[in-house]
Amino acid sequence: MQLQDLGDTTVYAFENLSQFDHLVHFVSTRRGGISEGNFSALNIGFHVGDDNFRVLQNRRILADALGMDLLKCTFANQCHSANVAIVNDTGRGKGALEKDSSLANTDGMITNVKNICLGVQVADCVPILLYDPQQQVIASLHAGWKGTLRKIVPEAIAKMVQHYGCMAENIYAGLGPSNGPCCYEVGEDVFREANTALGSVKGIIKPAATEGKYMFDQWEANVRQLKDAGLREEHIELAGICSQCEHETFFSSRAQDGITGRFMAGIMLKKVRH
Ligand SMILES: [Zn+2]
To answer: Rounded to the nearest whole angstrom, what is the distance from the C-alpha of residue 119 to the centroid of ligand 1?
Structure first.
């Protein structure tokens, strides 16, 4: 990913997605907002116990810095599912100004409608952005360990293929900052669930230094699902930034004992004048 200084704040962009003129995308950071304490500073999550007014202001600061209308952003009421919604014109702006209107029971969104920014909010879970430049289709996914084991990636790719006629080999993917294999310790329960869900956890889960604990590589698990779904390796960009290690730049739930803000990854097709 590349750092972009936008004055009031800083965002990151994937190198593989930056080559496309028809696309706007970004990963936000903690910099430039007005929230305080564990939510400092650019918390964009309404659902984490922060002051709603401050969250709304933060979202406006981010949208302004990006030159984007906040009302073009659509958010989901993420619940660690593999539910992927098709977003059309009527979904534009849902969840942008308050939590209640966000798409219920949804962790992934797909659209081919221009000027809808699909947003995903994370603090350790993996934000994944997808783009098919042939069919002009985008997607945003929230893939924590539960979403990963429930296989939100293959679910989203299958929907892009079935609903929009995408070919998996044309799709590009960016996996943003999230809890990395250096820090993501899980217990016996996750290890057992992963074995059942994934079949093989070789290269994905290793024993940790602490007995009865394991290190879960949620990056590798999702990259593998993208490849298995038919994406080309060279179309997949892994940020490789651990949110827990880099918790001063990105919100990390684990680094702050569960009380923290959310950063956002967003993707939007823009209208280009001919
Ligand atoms: Zn780490």
So the answer is: 24
